[in-house]
Amino acid sequence: MKPDVPQDMPPRPIALPMLARNVTHFTRLLRDAGFGLSPAHAVDALEALRHIDIGARSEVRAALAALMLSGPDQRPLFDAAFDLFWRDPDWEGKLRAMLLPRVDAGAPPPRRSNRLADALAARQPAAAKPDQPMREERFTAPLTFSDRERLASRDFETLSADEWRALQHLVRTRRAHLALQRTRRLRAAMCGTRADLRASARLAVRQHGEWLRWKYRKHAERKPPVVLLLDISGSMSQYSRAVLYFCHALMQSRERMHVFLFGTRLTNVTRALRERDPDDAVTLIAEQVRDWAGGTRIGAALAAFNRQWARRTLSGRATVLFVSDGIDLEHIDLLEREMARLRRFAHRIVWLNPLLRYAGFAPQARGIQAILPHVDALRPAHNLDSLLALETLLADTSRPPPMPPDRPTAPRQGNPPWK
Amino acid sequence: MLPTSIDRTLTQLEAQQYFADRETATVLYLALRMQRPLFLEGEPGVGKTALAQAMAGMLGTRLLRLQCYEGLDAASALYEWDYPRQIMALRLAEARGERPEQQSLYHDDYLLKRPLLEALLPDPARPDVPRVLLIDEIDRADEPFEAFLLEVLSEYQVSIPEIGVIRAERPPLIVITSNRTREVHDALKRRCLYQWMGYPGRDRELQIVAARAPEAAVALQQQAVDFIHRLRGIDLFKAPGIAEAIDWCRALAALGVAELDPQSVRNTLGVLLKYQDDLARADGPTIAELLAGAAPAG
């Protein structure tokens, strides 16, 4: 019971000085706009402002930027927000108006678990109708072997919603065994042929100078990086979803994997895929990507990748998985040029093309012909079998012999029945 | 000496022949004031490493430098015991018929200090100023090393089992640079002041070139900087940085070029452009257009 607070008023927050309140407010607005800021950032910002002349705009701007930015791409939004916030009397309305359309691009959308939502939804009818749990039970039971086999060879495009979920389950429970590659680095080991003089000496000092035991070193092993470029244009949408789930499963067992989606523009979704729950990850991505199931500009997307990401992600025997149907109608010369450039950066390029499900597939389209000379292997990607076959491919790090440009690898389905 | 204002930071940097913009100076001043590490990102060759060198010069201390690479471990970043000397001491003691104590073996004399540890200890020549530590190209080190850095960066202390915790009396100024070959973890960025370094404006670049390549004539410097600014405007795979601009002016001066002409540009273009595609892009007509002062279309 506090006698000095009137009973009818809600407890007020501690009155901060004007500047502190403004800085906190600014931090909060930026956070709403998708910046990863914590209250600690506001505290730091206030401390920084104590050291500089807060009458000088440019200094305040530089100080706040140094504390609140974590990448050059955030700068334009920060500048715009800063200008409005610290000048305009009606800053808030304008700021909100400006930020709102961008929120969907930058802000992490609220986390939601589809399975949790499903669980909650499923619970109510279960209480009302006692026969419902039986069916639920059957669904969550592990797939039988024949189910598995049937699903594995089904085309992604023909799956029903239930089959989709079963397939997701199948992918999720897999753990890929991927190749390890020997690096130049050495690390301590129990046995080997290289003596670790330093470690042995360390041991000897502990034993009062007696060299009783030797320590060894051997080559460290590491998984070579994988970069996946996934086409999400309209013609690919069903396949891209399946491949995304597959990627998520791969991501759990691979430290250096980067995933990029492209339709009309390139989006890096690696971070979203790190989400533990695959449904969450895919939901996050769907909200982050604006050109889902739209058109394709493969050439332009590849150019963007080569310029901004290739040097960062393709170091050290990287495999590029290029998932696309290769149907690009414009700028064939750009596509050809960028593909050739990508070829020089990557250790090998594997093209996963769902069109290979058609036994009569012939690389006629000009886009396909532009890509084909620059890839090391062409594989189908239309069902689970073909994706699982990919795992064996990733387990082998050697570069496959160059493919004759006029003959793509036949899909794994065997001959069509009429032949 | 520690600068007392942003303006003094700028002039002191200029005395070290480093021409920073006001924003960089502000961030640097804050880093000194708030005792926070500075995280610099930017294209290669925009002066990230040079800034650390200028800062060390400004404070009058020796720059400690830790070049990151894949597989960098604590033994080469932090400290290591000098095992051969320890064993020698053991043998000597044995010859004298003594049995040395652990304390005498794990003594400061046998500690090989690597840059991270050295940064926490005062500079013997200048104990009154903070040390300057450059952690160069952190993106080349692997992720576990970043995690290891976090303790050092936030507490300015390291623990050595045989000795105990070593804590910096005067927190060092730490400059971390990254070329963005991969994303650095947010937790690391969170502890630092972040600064993105872009290409400088024309006047500032001219100042830099004049200071770093004084052998080139002033007219040539101006022509070269103008040319490079226009060159950055065209669609290149890797635009030339300031380091390239300085190198180019020196190359031109070494060749005795007094004025830029298409032939001398073509002969020395390899100093500016390091990709075959870019060299092919900058063909004869493009160079002529750039020299004429108009940015070519496309």
Question: How would you describe this structure to a colleague?
Answer:
The complex is a heterodimer of chains A (419) and B (298). Chain A is an alpha/beta fold. Chain A has helices spanning 18-32, 39-51, 57-68, 75-85, 91-106, 114-128, 132-140, 145-153, 161-172, 197-206, 237-251, 270-273, 278-288, 298-308, 310-313, 332-345, 366-371, 384-395, and strands spanning 181-189, 194-195, 216-222, 226-231, 257-262, 266-268, 319-323, 348-352, 377-379. Chain A has a 6-stranded mixed beta sheet with strand order 6-5-4-7-8-9. In chain A, helix 2 packs antiparallel against helix 3 (57-68) and helix 14 (298-308) packs parallel to helix 16 (332-345). Chain B has 298 residues and is of the alpha/beta class. In chain B, the strands form 3 sheets. In chain B, strands 2-5-8-1-9 form a 5-stranded parallel beta sheet. Chain B has a two-stranded antiparallel ribbon with strand order 3-4. In chain B, helix 1 (6-15) packs across helix 2 (22-34) and helix 10 crosses helix 12. The mean pLDDT of chain B is 88. The A-B interface holds A 36, 38, 40, 44, 47-48, 51-53, 58-59, 61-63, 65-67, 69-72, 75, 183, 185, 198, 201-202, 204-205, 208-209, 220, 255, 306-307, 311-313, 315, 341 and B 6, 22-23, 26-27, 29-30, 33-34, 41, 70-71, 75, 80-81, 83-84, 86-87, 90-91, 94, 99, 105, 139, 143, 180-182, 186, 189-190, 193-196, 198, 237, 277.
